[in-house]
Design brief:
Elements lengths: L1 E2 L6 E5 L13 E7 L8 E3 L5 H10 L4 E8 L10 E4 L1 E2 L11 E2 L14 E7 L5 E3 L1 H6 L2 E6 L4 H5 L5 H6 L7 E6 L2 E5 L15 E3 L4 E3 L1 E10 L5 E9 L6 E2 L20 E5 L7 E3 L7 E9 L14 E8 L7 E8 L1 H4 L1
Parallel strand pairs: 4-6
Antiparallel strand pairs: 1-8, 2-3, 3-9, 5-9, 7-8, 10-13, 11-12, 12-20, 13-19, 14-15, 16-17, 16-21, 18-19, 21-22, 22-23
Length: 338
């Protein structure tokens, strides 16, 4: 990555069909930047335009946080409104868009045939999930289960690829699962709700529940050189207020039509639940690894910050339950945990 070097960069949102100056109170539109003190304006293209970049835009404009963002033709295209900057890549905590980085090479997505430009809608308050770091380490343990007892988990793709190859001939084959707890507390200014409407949720017959988010959490194991060795994920089968701070009454229950995490409340997926693990069956033993856990890993839902969505732990893996352990768990920004 390289640092953006536009000291005089100005930013605005524009939803007008032409390039005239938008109204001062506009909160939604295509993102436009100017590097010549407002004489000319250009749009934005990036490979991974997300809520990280959109939050920086809203922050710079004193409009709170991004409620929605995309690269689309909703407010015009790159032919009518040519790009002024490409390859924008933000951590999400920057105060100004000019403080963000640029992709090291020209983004392939930003070619002559791509008509899309970055758009943003700003709002005053959004949720903010904070991953419970102590819970990961405190409740972790190594479990062993035969494939015959993991049918539902296999349906939701929660085991390593080789498990699907041997299950037909060796249903009693054992899998080693590193289990741990994931606690997500909403410390933001609005309730955390699924990004999809109820009619778009996916029904899973085996577990008899809906998934309102296919990737609520991701679990990755790396060696000490950050080469990925194993991975897992957890879909949302019920976003709810498991516990709340004193004085706050739980609002979201485990209902299929209405899910969420209230401000000041937490949703906890305990270590005994299906898919609340990483399949470590093929992980070489007697080594130390790095476990990374992330909630809302795909930035599917807007948050105030993604700095508190990740955690990183050291994993001493022996292949035995009594001696395998997690230690030194620390919070990491989702920027690094992605």
């Amino acid at each position: 990555m390289i640092q953006t070097n536009f000291r005089n960069m100005r930013v605005r949102l524009n939803n007008s069909p032409r390039n005239h100056k938008p109204a001062s109170n506009i909160r939604e539109g295509r993102v436009e930047i100017s590097t010549d003190f407002g004489r000319t304006w250009g749009t934005v293209c990036a490979t991974h335009w997300s809520f990280r970049e959109a939050n920086v835009v809203c922050r710079q404009l004193n409009m709170g946080y991004a409620a929605a963002t995309n690269q689309t033709q909703q407010f015009g295209n790159s032919t009518t409104h040519p790009w002024g900057i490409v390859g924008t890549l933000c951590r999400g905590s920057e105060k100004l868009l000019r403080d963000c980085y640029r992709e090291t090479t020209y983004p392939k997505i930003c070619n002559a045939t791509n008509p899309n430009v970055a758009v943003v809608r700003c709002i005053d308050r959004v949720p903010d999930l904070q991953l419970g770091v102590p819970e990961i380490q405190r409740n972790a343990y190594l479990d062993t289960q035969p494939l015959s007892r993991l049918t539902c988990a296999m349906e939701e793709n929660c085991l390593s690829r080789d498990a699907y190859e041997i299950v037909r001939t060796q249903p009693g084959a054992l899998r080693k699962l590193l289990r741990f707890e994931t606690k997500a507390e909403n410390v933001g200014g609005a309730d955390f709700s699924p990004y999809a409407n109820y009619d778009q949720w996916q029904w899973h017959q085996c577990h008899n529940h809906y998934h309102s988010m296919e990737a609520f959490a991701s679990f990755d194991i790396y060696d000490l050189n950050y080469r990925k060795m194993a991975q897992g994920h957890k879909a949302s089968f019920c976003l709810m207020d498991t516990s709340c701070r004193p004085g706050i009454r739980p609002k979201h229950t485990c209902g299929n039509r209405e899910q969420g995490i209230s401000v000041g409340c937490s949703d906890t997926y305990n270590a005994q639940l299906d898919c609340q693990w990483v399949d470590v069956t093929n992980l070489p033993i007697h080594r130390t690894y790095i476990l990374r856990v992330a909630i809302n890993p795909d930035y599917a839902i807007s948050e105030e910050s993604f700095e508190n969505n990740g955690a990183e732990c050291l994993l001493d893996y022996t292949g035995e339950r009594l001696t395998t352990r997690l230690r030194n768990c620390t919070q990491t920004p989702l920027w690094y945990a992605k």
